[in-house]
TrEMBL record, chains A, B:
This is iodotyrosine deiodinase. It catalyses: L-tyrosine + chloride + NADP(+) = 3-chloro-L-tyrosine + NADPH; 3-iodo-L-tyrosine + iodide + NADP(+) = 3,5-diiodo-L-tyrosine + NADPH + H(+); bromide + L-tyrosine + NADP(+) = 3-bromo-L-tyrosine + NADPH; iodide + L-tyrosine + NADP(+) = 3-iodo-L-tyrosine + NADPH. It comes from Chelonoidis abingdonii. The keyword Nucleotide-binding does not apply. One of its GO terms (biological process) is tyrosine metabolic process. GO terms for molecular function: FMN binding; iodotyrosine deiodinase activity. It holds the Pfam family Nitroreductase. Residues 30-53 are annotated as: Disordered.
Amino acid sequence: MELFSSLTPVFIAIICVLIGIILKSNRKNSKKGKRETKNKSESRPWVDDDLRDSTDLHVEEEDADGDWQGLDENIAHVSFSAEHYSEGEMIKRSKEFYELLSKRRSVRFISDEPVPREVINNVIKAAGTSPSGAHTEPWTFVVVQDPEVKQRIREIIEEEEEINYKKRMGDRWVNDLKRLRYLDYSSYLILILKQVYGMLPNGQRRTPLLNEIMLLPVVILFANVGLVTVTSTPLNCGPRLRVLLQRPKNEKLLLLLPVGYPSKDATVPDLTRKPLDDIMVVM
Amino acid sequence: MELFSSLTPVFIAIICVLIGIILKSNRKNSKKGKRETKNKSESRPWVDDDLRDSTDLHVEEEDADGDWQGLDENIAHVSFSAEHYSEGEMIKRSKEFYELLSKRRSVRFISDEPVPREVINNVIKAAGTSPSGAHTEPWTFVVVQDPEVKQRIREIIEEEEEINYKKRMGDRWVNDLKRLRYLDYSSYLILILKQVYGMLPNGQRRTPLLNEIMLLPVVILFANVGLVTVTSTPLNCGPRLRVLLQRPKNEKLLLLLPVGYPSKDATVPDLTRKPLDDIMVVM
């Protein structure tokens, strides 16, 4: 008992220390807690976790995209009218457009036959009419015609693909990479970058405003003039390509499209598309 | 001293309890730590953290989208050719397409004048020609014409918007929500859903294969027939709308588009688009 009682001050000291530690760790947790509840408050109780994907991950972006709230209230409005086609004409035009698009395929056999620059310009002007949250138009199209830059782009992609493939499927990458040569041959490489965040005059970042799904895909525009391409989002290459193309830090690669006329020996996988009934539900 | 020593067992008990608490909280933190490092390992050393957005977040999806690796090696190939237009014709077609799209605007003033179903069908067939990783075509288009379903959709969005707005901008939501009435009036509401993951015959999940940017936006297709729409991604409404539309758990709402003829009194914000030089870089 004597021993114990002599140790008493030590016990008390230990208690104080332990309490201190606990208080500290609690403060940490409560900070974390705040952050978590902040995130939670964005998602709703009934949100179905199976469905949480990118669309949930950049809520700010979606939010800004909600066209009904993005724009400055004070901006003047002008009257709008569109061509009012007859029913027959509407059906004809929609059918012809479907037929044009139904012939479009992703083609990797692209010739180096030069394509008039004016066509590329018109295609990019057309892509630039895409809707964007609060009309921020946060996109950049890089058109690469310099053979050395094309080759460097292909090399960067091959290096990254090699790493990805080795991680995932061993030797197979060697065969697959042979297919990347078409990047050099293509008349143009077009890289679409998104401004991930804008800059306010005061230098502060502004939330990103582009919902990628809104960017009009140039594939239609090329199909319309008899050019072919294949959309690709090279895995992990974005930042290196951004540096190669001397684009600012706030721009991120969305898509890489080699563009040109199909080569004489072009082939595509023999695929059919789902019938309308498999993709459309009417209520 | 006597008092203290008699209290000694109490002190010891307290110490044990406190130690217990500390150990517990430490275990929590170390779990958190593991999760964090796991996420880190997915990013590449040189990846530029400013640029980590959705495109990085679903690497699997991008990866599968790389058209050059998605498809079954054994599928037969067929030869492909496209219309080879003269330069003049290409320039003309690309210019006309640009002019068509440059007239397209996001319009919220939509009349309830009925639109022929065949036009909607053709538009959705056209959208269904979008490229998708490994040709999975993981999309569903829900066409809503039932006025009660339209109204219910508007109510769900208003409920969610009210919550979002109150969180962010106080009373302003009231004014903004008035604008949502057009959802009821529109001839059709079209909801585009993405199959977030597929199901293998053995019931296992398959990685999602759609890169959203590849989905051909129906806005062009409607513009082509003189119809108007406004793309929106209602914040947090996805799961409730999915349930309302009786869609399976693996489908996620990407876009909601009210569609119809512009109403007589339609107006749009008086905006101009960036000139080509602001969005295009040539190397």
